[in-house]
Amino acid sequence: MPDTSVERIFRSGIIAIMRRTEASLAIETVEALVRGGIDIVEVTLNSPGADDMLRALSAHFGDRVLIGAGTVMSAESAKAAIAAGARFIVSPHTDRGVIEASRRAGLPVFPGGFTPTEIVHAWKLGATAVKVFPIGSVGARYLRDVLAPLTEIPLVPTGGITLDNAAEMIRFGARALGLGSDLVSAKTVTDRQFDTIAERARRFVEEVAKGRSE
Questions:
Q1: Which fold has domain 5-213?
Q2: What is the pLDDT of residues 30-39, one digit of tens each?
């Protein structure tokens, strides 16, 4: 039986975040990520032409890449992103309407939370997993400490994940990592450094595997 979307995300362990990516270079960017071993991609809705990008990427890659929408701030934005082809929804915050719209569409939804209270609140509202954001300022040990009492809640740390801390995040309990500018920066895309993106992707895949084996 094929993976569901959430199983696929957790199995991969990496969500590549395309924030303010040049729309005309989006397909080449995702091709580079795929060459590096990453097939889960989040297009943030604060990127120019995000809905058109979602449509183009979904049409081009089909099931080869799981395309989702990030920085989803409202139920209306969630519905528009889903109509454009998003297959998972990510928010920096917890919004009941976003969660309900995603669940009605049968899609995984990862609302943002930071404190244990926020994480539990998001989970009780129906989150598939909770995006712990921003994690960079507190580090992987915070994730470990939060998971000690909240063992049943899948967490996806985002914001400040680097090659230096990715393996530790996985080792301390992250189900997947949201990878932004350290993997796909707007400048790297604009400069068409697709080989660099592919190589960074490969290195992050290696770090996730390392974290799972430790």
A1: TIM Barrel (3.20.20)
A2: 999 999 999 9
